[in-house]
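Researcher: For the record, we're logging two predictions in this thread. I'll number them. Prediction 1 follows.
Model: Prediction 1, sequence and structure:
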Amino acid sequence: MRLPVCNFDIESDMLCPNCQAKLDRGEITGFDIQFSKWLLEKEKQYPSLDDLTLRKAAMAGTNLILVVNKNNKELLLGEETLIQELIEEFGEPIIIEGAPKLRRIVREFIAPANEVGVNSLWLPEGTKENIVMLREEDRARIKYTKEELRVIVSAIMGESVLFEYQDDRRNQEETIEKPDEFDEKMKEIGERRF
């Protein structure tokens, strides 16, 4: 089994310099380490896990997000008892195969709808924020709310992803004075001194 953290590090409860550097850069998280330890303990009970490559593990609300290599999803789903243990311990799993690409992930969660556009903003402190625009007429077709999509997709991508419906901005301008999250961010960026 390949995990985001070295197996030796998990067994010794100490990170090697390489894994510590990944943690410091934000490439892995404390949850990656915690989940990898849990999964490594299950390998003895489920020998098929030997072929699994886990790229990332994250929590998004009550969902466990697992990013695995291609063709590893069925390997996990084939172990019904393990899936039940995952649900009891961490929550309902959402399993993504392959390297997470923003458009592909967004399309997977909003299907059968399509996004109108995906824009990325690089903030002065070097962080990236993505904004996904959706069509108002697709609102009923998308099974997740904007907030659920934000939490899940941000957890998968490891960076901020906001979702907006095209009509939301127009309706907000017409009916309320309260700025939305995107407007607040843009105002905050504009007030920063460089």
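Researcher: Logged. Prediction 2.
Model: Prediction 2, sequence and structure:
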Amino acid sequence: MERLTPIGTAATALFRSVREPMKHLATVALILNLGVAPAYAQDESVKMAYSGTSTGASAVNLQQPGTVTVEENFEGNGALGPFTVRIISAETNSPQEPPSTCSGPANIYLTRGAGAGVFRFQDGSLLKVNVTQGADCIDFAGQQGPQGHCTVTFQIAGGTGRFKNASGTLTFTETTVPVLADASNHPVFFAATGQFTGTVSGVQIGDEQNGQ
């Protein structure tokens, strides 16, 4: 029994020498997991308010038959942080058959097709979107003068930085008020306000998110 005591002591010391580093590694792994896991959001609901300008005669011409190229420049803030965005899209240049939501004797209904936009956030990350559908309901008999009410849906197409693997959809709702007309008295430059809502997936969430 006396011979077994040193052997038992040595075995116990060896076990402890192996166990302690393993406990340390497990603790480090747990800390890393707790620190990294919240940095990614698989399905992030977003809401971002904006204001800016819209023009019905962009220097870019998408050359889509029967359309005019619309350009919009906004600045805003929300769930993903402060941003600027430029959107270029093709809008029909002749009235379309309006839905019931745009009925009215002084209303004009226009639809949007091809187009894209790029968001730029304060950390330098870019978010790219493509227009999937959209429409503008222009009310020329509004109580506060002519107004346009627009809805456009975008498909997210990745980007750079924290939006490299981004996907999802965004929809903007917009109210525009004419500011300037051309020589034929057709409004060509507008003040715009509205918001983007939707779901963004695969986005790394960082300090820039906390801007809402």
